[in-house]
């Protein structure tokens, strides 16, 4: 047992911190979020070309770096901390994991290869607030060598810009989980329409995707692309999202401590007021525990990814623990940060609101805290 | 102790309700449910015309004594007025600061000349006021006011210099009441003055604050030797604290019940949403909706106690002391509840580039409720110190 | 509208405060709670004989004072504040209300008359944690001029000592609410066994009551004693319980403020620490709002009692609002009081623990906060 | 970063587990799950004999270096030891203070003579220790210690006078380590000494504190010129703060994982209860049970990080700083949850006159968790000041 970063992991984390601090500045974030694309394509190129982050946990066989999910989580933590605007979550946490869980060797070689080369991708699976198996409402029909898909997806992260997509659909007329299959398709084709959704949290784009008799070859069906693979993918993505939240929590704490040290009222730095100190202490508690949660979940994810057959309860539990803690805690830290910033926290000019909005948006993505707690309760009690 | 309104009051209720129904039509119909907190920057001109319509009906300054042109309503009738006003979805009052704060202050502390000069414009819905209270370095700590007023003997005028912040609708206002330090060497609550200042003058610059919502209704107001007539100080130089404290009393007056009716409208929208999107079936959401309902009812009961002046155990002061902390926290939680009922849909805006829907606006705007007018933390200090006699914070 | 005590109400409240402060002292409470009876019979006699509190809202026709529920609530508030050990809640909030809601004229004249004369009484209705109609599990069968009752009751307040009891039972074989009837019986008779239950909160006694073919005359059936009357009784009692909680909250606040002013740490009174001040401020907020809740509920109860047919939603709502707020708030105030007392709050010697235990026990009686919130949610949403 | 224990560790796990299974039988069977917090006053004699049994098996002082008679276990093995100990329901350790605190302190800071004198009694499970830290006026603020130690030159001994409080099992202990002021004019952290004091002497009076539970395991200890040999001060006079701070480190050591396993036993009981009485079907209770489970898992992950010494971003200190606040609050909430699952049954005792059931005891006893050893409020101060570098509270 060794529950600490190895030297190599620490190095990756530190270099991510250094890089993102310099590139994902407040000005850069604000510039990116005002574009339609939602991110800086040039920065994405650097990220892929120089740092090779998009390939971090893709096995070396497929051209990736072959590192573990611990490194993935370490990167997401820093990205959440610096509010990086990039199609990284969609490409790595969603699409790459889906391919790892569901692709045949050939499919992995092909599509993971594209991701290694800098392609963006995402996963579309639900059209409602339902993150469980019932949320999959698009359907498909097999017609000879083709498959025809119909339906609508909402909350598709970076759906407007991803170069290819993994789509979840259920066989027409089958309402069992066993009817669910995954398909990989390129974005630009007849029968697939996408519409970017304006979002309160401008640091992450979401889209609507409509399928109208989208015809794809049978080979687009991911070989192991069943509900179990999708569920595992979502759990892996949930851990990445929690890691972003943990990173944001730390940054909110740091910003707030710095601000309260500077800001004076009643002739004292407001950091000297016990009410402020105690709120900050609670923020730190939440933040430290969040880190324990995501590192543990990262180790569990790594085991699950390493074992193709591991669809056990461990990953589900670790993901739900991490997300339920981090979702509420990140929002709490953001809310307290805003409150402690006082009036200026309420302005567009200060960055607090960017984190605040991201916290609320991320809270709802992939299940909020109550939803994940009910998952845990079901494991324990039913 | 009794809850019922008497028959005359119920007749009065029907009168105002039907007046509102009749008049909130035609050109004013689009103003329904607009102009509240978070939406105050919308339709300023139309809402100013609405103030004049109100004045024509005799519905401005309903609580002022008749001798000053008010309607002289009883407490009960004022409660009813504000409730029906909000229930009808009548627009956020552009005249609120004049009607509810500046006017009552001038009536209580002002000179006859000030009364003659300023009250008619408020009554007629033609002159609008804003308040110059908070300062960037002072937050809501009046004792730390740095804005200065010095009397220019030659010109026979006060010259005011400094900066105020969080001034709602400053750019739409004709006058501002300003707390400024008349004695530059004074400290804390001493040496303050309370000034009535014309906004349209070279010495005043208004800069809108871009808020978390992407909109601006708060402003920074810069005073650079802004002029104020010798006759336009309320009370004597040095009385500013006393006058301002009186004014704080009005802020917690009957209009709170109108505010609550507006909250009720928001709450009803949240409930309707939960029913529509199925969240009303989720146990955790049900608990929170019930809690919000309970919180709002209790807010109302508490205000009724406040207004009935229950001094049973010296508690008028006590229930009033908690009021700001209570409603601000409740309102902020309502915003969070609305988002959590929306779930992932909470993140999707009404329209690009950044048009919030009403509930998103509620969510974001209510973050200011626990900050302006004394943060929750300041409120707790005040409650502990004034309500419970605990030691004051030391200055360093 | 006048939402303040009248002068007479204020006088009654003040005299209750004075009387209880002098008689229900810490020493008196500790003495009473160590007896098997659980209260001081002599004090009860004074309360009934001198102050006539047991008769406060019994109409003058039946020998009572004919005052309103506002006065009842004012008394309960002071009793909760001084932790009065007496069979007052059982006799007045439970039995008297049941008789007022369900008795015929003759039954009221008889039994309310006994209460006016100082008899103690209570209500027994559930054997489980279920406070709704399903909780009534005892049954009855009509046999000629007699009724035979069987079953068990738990959590019967002062059930070990009450001189007569109102029993709720359902007609054998009928699981509809319409099968529920109320009976009034004297305590000492064959077929009725009672057993005092040792309780964590020693300031209020509870008992188990077993019915084994208890035969009572048909006249023991309360004329209007159906589920609606029982439900209304429980709502009225719930308001009284909330009033006790509100009184306790105020006392906890006062004790705590006084203690923190005296107690020094780091060379300052601990009342000067902002964390302590803010906790106290929150206690005061909860306490003031609790008072608004119970006074409003008292007015609503008064209307409901005045109108024999008023079984409307108003009373149910007011009761659930009051209890849901006061239950949680009273426990919060007790918990914070204990915390702020530090080590001594953890000792048997200081009184905080008496309030703390009472708070937890009262929280669960007649439905906890979640239960009452779900009542409200059902009214609003279903 | 990896979670798995290696194979040797798993072999070790089976070894201790089977030893416990074998030995927790016969006369020791009734001790299962006894003697934990809230129950520490029970079966003291039997539990002392159990300590000797442990010693015979080589299971006392498992983390001490071998050169001092310890078992010299690795961190992982210590974790396993404490986990299995708690999992088996082995009784609360009478030897905990000696084994976990006094011994390591003597090893780190004591003289050779002290080591020779005191370690064997701890190792053999025959000499028991208590701690003299908190004082009535000082709470957990060591800087405010008022107990005095003066050196009597004639007798060649230290004489200690003052009062300690919250001393667990003082009446069952042979020795007490006492923080006292060696320099009467000193202030704060200076001038303290760390003394090893024999309990059985005329100068010491132990008075049990009757607790909220009706039982007593904490005591007040009065020192009235209690004697302590010149050779029984650890370090030099004035070193007391340094020694005490080292000791605080041990308190947050590997035994936390054993504590958590005991928490797990309690949690499992709560879950079983909820299943039995149907509360597990209530959505609000389900959420709270899940939250408790999550909280306990996270406590474990946090400890594992703490023990792995993740200094990634200087955070060893950080995750350790939050630990007390976290577990104390979690444990207190578990007690509340247990009561709320019991519902009205929570109020009914196991037996008259005042015999609490295990969950009631948990509920009441956990109120002390957020008080002793530094209240939650003190913990938050420490986190803010040491963890975040925020300004210290001013003394008045």
* Residues in helices of chain A, as a percent range: 40-55%
Overall outline of chain B = globular
Assigned CATH class of the largest domain in chain A? Mainly Alpha
Overall structural domain count of chain A: 3
The portion of residues assigned to helices of chain B is 40-55%
Largest sheet of chain A: 7 strands, mixed
User: pLDDT below 50 for ≥5 consecutive residues: which ranges of chain B?
Assistant: 310-316
CATH superfamily descriptor of the largest domain in chain B: Butyryl-CoA Dehydrogenase, subunit A, domain 3
Oligomer: heterotetramer
Hey, roughly how much beta strand do the residues of chain A contain? 15-25%
Order of helices and strands of chain B: HHHHHEEEEEEEEHHHHHHH
Give the CATH class of the largest domain in chain B: Mainly Alpha
CATH topology of the largest domain in chain A, what is it called? Butyryl-CoA Dehydrogenase, subunit A, domain 3
Mean pLDDT of chain B: 90
**Secondary structure tally: strands of chain A:** 9
User: Structural class, from helix and strand content of chain A?
Assistant: alpha+beta
The CATH homologous superfamily of the largest domain in chain A corresponds to Butyryl-CoA Dehydrogenase, subunit A, domain 3
Mean pLDDT of chain A: 96
């Amino acid at each position: 047992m060794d529950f600490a970063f190895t030297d190599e992991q620490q190095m990756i984390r530190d270099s991510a911190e250094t890089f993102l601090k310099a590139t994902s500045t407040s000005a850069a974030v604000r510039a990116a979020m005002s574009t339609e694309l939602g991110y800086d394509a040039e920065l994405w190129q650097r990220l892929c070309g120089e740092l090779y982050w998009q390939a971090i946990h893709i096995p070396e066989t497929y051209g990736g770096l072959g590192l573990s999910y611990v490194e993935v989580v370490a990167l997401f933590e820093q990205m959440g901390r610096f509010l990086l605007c990039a199609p990284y979550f969609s490409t790595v946490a969603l699409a790459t994991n889906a391919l790892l869980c569901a692709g045949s060797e050939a499919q992995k070689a092909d599509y993971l290869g594209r991701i290694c080369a800098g392609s963006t991708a995402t996963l579309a699976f639900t059209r409602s607030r339902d993150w469980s198996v019932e949320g999959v409402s698009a359907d498909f029909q097999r017609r000879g060598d083709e498959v025809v898909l119909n339906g609508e997806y909402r909350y598709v992260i970076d759906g407007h810009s991803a170069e290819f997509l993994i789509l979840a659909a259920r066989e027409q007329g089958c309402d069992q989980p066993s009817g669910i299959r995954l398909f990989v398709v390129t974005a630009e084709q007849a029968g697939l329409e996408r519409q970017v959704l304006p979002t309160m949290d401008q640091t992450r784009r979401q889209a609507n995707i409509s399928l109208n008799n989208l015809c794809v070859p049978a080979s687009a069906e991911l070989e192991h692309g069943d509900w179990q693979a999708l569920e595992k993918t979502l759990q892996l993505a949930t851990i990445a999202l929690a890691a972003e939240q943990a990173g944001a929590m730390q940054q909110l704490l740091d910003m707030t401590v710095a601000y309260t040290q500077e800001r004076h009222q009643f002739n004292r730095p407001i950091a000297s007021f016990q009410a402020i100190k105690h709120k900050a202490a609670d923020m730190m508690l939440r933040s430290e525990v969040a880190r324990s949660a995501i590192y543990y979940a990262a180790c569990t994810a790594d085991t699950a990814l390493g074992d193709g057959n591991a669809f056990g309860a461990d990953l589900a539990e670790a993901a739900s623990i991490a997300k339920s803690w981090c979702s509420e805690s990140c929002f709490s830290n953001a809310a307290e940060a805003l409150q402690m910033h006082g009036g200026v926290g309420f302005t567009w000019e200060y960055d607090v609101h960017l984190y605040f909005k991201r916290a609320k948006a991320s809270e709802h993505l992939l299940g909020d805290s109550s939803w994940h707690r009910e998952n845990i309760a079901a494991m324990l009690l039913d | 102790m009794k809850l019922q309104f008497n028959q005359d009051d119920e007749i009065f209720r029907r009168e105002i309700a039907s007046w509102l129904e009749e008049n909130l039509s035609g050109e004013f119909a689009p103003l329904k449910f607009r102009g509240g907190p978070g939406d105050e920057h919308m339709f300023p001109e139309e809402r100013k015309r609405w103030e004049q319509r109100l004045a024509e009906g005799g519905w401005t300054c309903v609580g002022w004594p008749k001798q000053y042109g008010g309607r002289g309503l009883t407490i009960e009738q004022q409660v009813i007025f504000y409730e029906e006003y909000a229930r009808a979805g009548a627009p956020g009052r552009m005249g609120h600061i004049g009607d509810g704060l500046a006017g009552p202050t001038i009536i209580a502390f002002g000179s006859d000349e000030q009364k003659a000069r300023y009250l008619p414009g408020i009554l007629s819905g033609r002159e609008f006021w804003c308040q110059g209270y908070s300062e960037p370095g002072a937050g809501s700590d009046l004792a730390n006011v740095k804005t200065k007023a010095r009397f220019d003997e030659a010109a026979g005028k006060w010259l005011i210099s400094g900066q105020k912040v969080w001034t709602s609708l400053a750019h739409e206002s004709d006058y501002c009441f300003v707390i400024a330090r008349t004695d530059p060497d004074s400290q804390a609550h001493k040496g303050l003055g309370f000034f009535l200042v014309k906004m349209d003058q070279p010495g005043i610059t208004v800069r809108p604050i871009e808020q978390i919502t992407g909109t601006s209704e708060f402003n920074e107001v810069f005073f650079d030797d802004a002029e104020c007539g010798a006759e336009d100080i309320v009370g004597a130089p040095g009385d500013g604290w006393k006058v301002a404290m009186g004014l704080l009393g009005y802020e917690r007056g009957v209009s709170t019940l109108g505010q609550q009716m507006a909250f009720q409208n928001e709450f009803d929208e949240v409930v309707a949403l939960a029913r529509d999107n199925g969240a009303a079936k989720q146990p955790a959401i049900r608990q929170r909706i019930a809690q919000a309902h309970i919180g709002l009812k209790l807010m109302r009961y508490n205000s009724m106690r406040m207004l009935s002046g229950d001094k049973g155990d010296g508690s008028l002061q006590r229930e009033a002391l908690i009021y700001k902390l209570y409603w601000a926290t409740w309102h902020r939680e309502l915003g969070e509840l609305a988002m959590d009922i929306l779930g992932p849909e909470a993140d999707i805006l009404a329209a690009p580039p950044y048009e919030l829907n009403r509930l998103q606006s509620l969510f974001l705007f209510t973050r200011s409720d626990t900050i302006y007018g004394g943060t929750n933390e300041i409120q707790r200090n005040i409650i502990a110190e004034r309500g419970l006699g605990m030691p004051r914070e030391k200055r360093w």
